[in-house]
From TrEMBL:
Domain of life: Eukaryota
Sample GO molecular function, one term: metal ion binding
Transmembrane intervals: none
InterPro entries attached to this UniProt entry: HMA_dom (IPR006121), HMA_dom_sf (IPR036163)
CDD domains in alphabetical order: HMA
SUPFAM superfamilies: HMA, heavy metal-associated domain (SSF55008)
Source organism of the structure: Malus baccata
Protein name per UniProt: HMA domain-containing protein
């Protein structure tokens, strides 16, 4: 069993398109999608699936994708913290 983490730019209905692209590949057991952080975790049943085949299938479906890295964790945390501070000052009048 192997897990592959991907960063996929998703907006709205793209989750359905993503699942359709990945369903065409053999050996995929489970697909977990976190649309908020744009993270997709694919678990294989057979033990090994080439990572580039996953990436190629997603790109063929018209979505932008890349492998997940620890830097993405930091960027998503920073973006959510910055967005939260913007919301707090939204009602401020000059």
């Amino acid at each position: 069993m192997e897990t592959v983490e991907l960063k996929v730019e998703m907006v709205g209905i793209h989750e359905k398109r993503l699942r359709k692209c990945l369903s065409k590949l053999r050996g995929i057991e489970k697909v977990e999608v976190d649309a908020y952080s744009q993270k997709v975790v694919v678990t294989t049943a057979t033990g090994y699936l080439h990572r580039n085949k996953l990436l190629k299938a997603i790109k063929r479906g018209g979505l932008k994708a890349d492998f997940w890295s620890p830097q993405n964790e930091l960027l998503s945390a920073y973006a959510s913290a910055s967005y939260g501070s913007l919301i707090r000052f939204n009602n401020f009048n000059f």
